[in-house]
Specification:
The complex is a heterodimer of chains A (281) and B (213). Chain A has 281 residues and is α/β, with parallel strands linked by helices. Chain A has helices at 7-23, 27-39, 43-62, 90-104, 148-151, 164-179, 197-208, 219-233; strands spanning 3-6, 74-80, 83-86, 128-134, 139-143, 155-159, 187-195, 248-258, 263-270, 277-280. Chain B is of the alpha/beta class and 213 residues long. Chain B has a five-stranded mixed beta barrel with strand order 2-3-4-5-7. The longest helix of chain B is centred in the first third of the chain and has 21 residues, at 34-54. Chain B has a single domain (2-35, 83-210), classed as fumarase. Classes of the chains: A alpha/beta (281), B alpha/beta (213).
């Protein structure tokens, strides 16, 4: 049974999601920050976390975006194959939503149309859109505006199968150590293991949108997530990279089948806000 | 112990700043990031080219006397669109301001992207940088030889820092949108000394204190 979703409905929702994501933290991230503020052992680290808590309060009350880097819009679209989009192209509807959201929401226009010529597009489009066709008649949007302080610290490692799990751990820790203060810690670390060169990075980005209080359902992966989080927090980087016991809130790992000759590992670093909003139409 | 400083930041002030100091800044500072720094660098390069051209030199350039060096530095500082002597530059690109407000969200951007340009401006008289994240050895040395300072503002505290900004005006490069050069008047703007004039680096020392295993 084909179900119709209008382009306008998509635009209106994306617009609202852009604004919501930049003014209010998702519940899991809010909890993570509050818990860290209580547990952090470094006095300066605690001071910084308190400043970040106050920042959130001010953002919501005074309607100022949480962070001035309101990000490049990354949108995951899970489109049920019984959905028919009417009244325009799906891609255009999403971009129009971003355009309107970034205008009406007083969000920063941080996109340049060419990576070398670098003229600002003026409306924060185009969004980076990842499509997945699923079963059913719903369309689910996950919007994750990505700031580039953290994005710039992200890495891909094409490991050898012989490097194994220890190689994976070393890769993740290397990426986090090299990022240090630049990614506005405490971080959320998304890890993709397997697939191909481009698949593992997509896995890592998608992993960032999983709530930070929900570990992997695969037992060995859940163990890896916990071990990596512990090792990362023992690096001492701390809030703002100025020393402390909270360097990351969570490590979310996602795996995928891969080639007999490969072990691709992607580490997508995110800062302490890890903005994401999900809606289903 | 918290310190309250009214800008301009001078060598006298930086002599008393140490890595780890929590500082509240008030007064005038300038905002510039990637694209603006690139244009400033190009402007300085152009000014220097013109100076040598006027002297009739092409190709091999003669060494300048002390007086000539002074003259060149004067021309370079005069070419810049804002007074560089004892200036504080904040690496930042704000979100748009709502009606009646001076500025939108205004937290620091990653300073390492300005490393390429920083030493030149410090050598021309800039006294303080505000940003976040690691700097190169070259920048650290420029801070030391110029008795300057590198402050970090808390990354991500854009809304909170916005409330410390009383006035904002565009100085130049308006076409760069969020990357335009701004002149801000701030009040009790919280920063932490990361690199002081002696080359102490808080990012290095603080992490060592908490690193285990």
């Amino acid at each position: 049974m084909i179900r119709t979703v209008s382009a306008k409905e998509i635009t209106d929702n994306i617009k609202e999601m852009c604004i919501e994501a930049n003014y209010y933290l998702s519940g899991d991230m809010d909890d993570a920050l509050n818990q860290a503020a209580e547990r952090e052992q470094a006095p300066l680290g605690r001071k910084i976390l308190h400043q970040l808590q106050e920042n959130l309060k001010i953002a919501g009350e005074d309607m100022i975006p949480i962070c001035q880097d309101t990000g490049m819009a990354v949108v995951f679209v899970e489109l049920g194959q019984d959905v028919h989009v009417e009244g325009g192209l799906l891609e255009d509807a999403v971009n129009e939503g971003v355009r309107q959201g970034y205008m009406e929401g007083f969000l920063r226009k941080s996109v340049v149309s060419d990576p070398i010529i670098r003229k600002n597009t003026g409306d924060n489009t185009p969004a980076v859109i990842h499509y997945q066709i699923t079963a059913g008649d719903k369309v689910k949007f996950t919007l994750a505006p990505k700031g580039f302080g953290s994005e710039n610290m992200s890495r891909v490692f094409m490991l050898k199968p012989a490097d194994g799990i220890e190689g994976v751990k070393e890769a993740v820790l290397t990426a986090v150590k090299d990022a240090g203060p630049n990614a506005c810690p405490p971080m959320v670390v998304g890890v993709g293991i397997g697939g191909t060169f481009e698949k593992c990075t997509l896995l890592a980005k998608k992993a960032l949108t999983r709530p930070v209080n929900e570990p992997s359902e695969i037992p060995w992966v859940k163990e890896l997530e916990a071990e990596l989080l512990e090792k990362i927090n023992r690096l001492g980087i701390g809030p703002g990279g100025l020393g402390g016991t909270t360097t990351a809130f969570a490590v979310n790992v996602s795996t995928w089948p891969t080639h007999i000759a490969g072990l691709p590992v992607a580490v997508n670093i995110c800062c302490h806000v890890n903005r994401h909003v999900v809606r289903e139409l | 112990m918290d310190k309250y400083i009214t800008m301009p930041v001078t060598a006298e002030i930086t002599d008393n700043l140490h890595a780890g100091d929590y500082v509240y800044l008030s007064g005038i500072l300038y905002v510039a990031r990637d694209a603006a720094h690139k244009r400033l660098e190009e402007l300085l390069k152009q000014t220097e080219e013109e100076y040598y051209k006027e002297r009739g030199e092409t190709g091999n350039r003669q060494n300048l006397t002390a007086k000539e060096q002074e003259e060149l530095v004067r021309k370079l500082t005069e070419a810049l669109p804002f007074p560089i002597e004892n200036s504080t530059i904040y690496y930042m690109g704000p979100s748009p301001a709502r009606n009646g407000r001076p500025v939108g969200s205004a937290g620091p951007t990653t300073a390492s992207r300005m490393d390429k340009y920083a030493s030149r401006l410090l050598d021309l008289g800039q006294k303080a940088m505000i940003g976040k994240g690691k700097r190169t050895q070259e920048v650290k040395e420029a801070v030391m030889r110029n008795h300057a300072v590198y402050f970090a503002a808390v990354g991500g505290a854009g809304a909170l820092l916005s409330k410390c900004i009383r006035k904002s005006e565009i100085v130049c490069y308006e076409d760069l949108g969020a990357e335009a050069v701004l002149k801000l008047e701030v009040e009790n703007f919280p920063v932490i000394v990361v690199i002081d004039k002696d080359g102490n680096n808080l990012y290095e020392t603080a992490i060592r204190a908490y690193a285990e295993g």
